Amino acid sequence: MLAAHADRERAVDVLRAGFAEGRLQQGEYERRIERAYGARTVGELTSLVADLPQGPTPQQQLPMPMMGVPRTFLPPPPPTNGKAVGALVCGVGTFFSMGGTALPAVILGHMARKEIRERGDSGDGMAVGGLVLGWLAIAGWALFITAMIIAGASGEG
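Below the sequence we write its predicted C-alpha cells.
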C-alpha cells in the first residue's frame, strides 16, 4: 500500500522517540529519517521502525460490506501469488502422482512465502498448504523406502 504523508510523519515520530530514548545512534537515526521521507510504501516505513517500541499505528480497515459505497471506491485486494497457487496444485497433485509433485510443491511453497513477505501478496495459506502436502508426501516416501530396506535386510538372514 502506498504511504501517505501522515504515515511518514508517524514513522518519523517513532524514530525521534527512539533517538531521544537512546535506542538509535545519530548516524542510524539520520539514515532512517532520510529513508522514511523517501519511502513509497507502508511496508518500507514499517521496516524502518519494526525494532523500536511504538511502531506505526496500524491502519484501520474498512468494514467490508460498506453500505452505500460502490466497490469502485474500495481499495483493490492484494494480488494472489502465482507460485502459491502452483504450490497448492502440486501439493494436491501428490495424491494423484504418487508423490511425484511433492518436490515442486515444497520448492514453490518456499519461494511463494518469500515473495508474499516481500511484496505483500495474498496466498500465504495456499503456499503453506502446498508445503505441508509436499513434505507429507516426501516423508511418506522416506518411510516407505526405509521399510523396504529393513524388510530386504531382514529377509536375507
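DSSP finds six helices and no strands in the chain.
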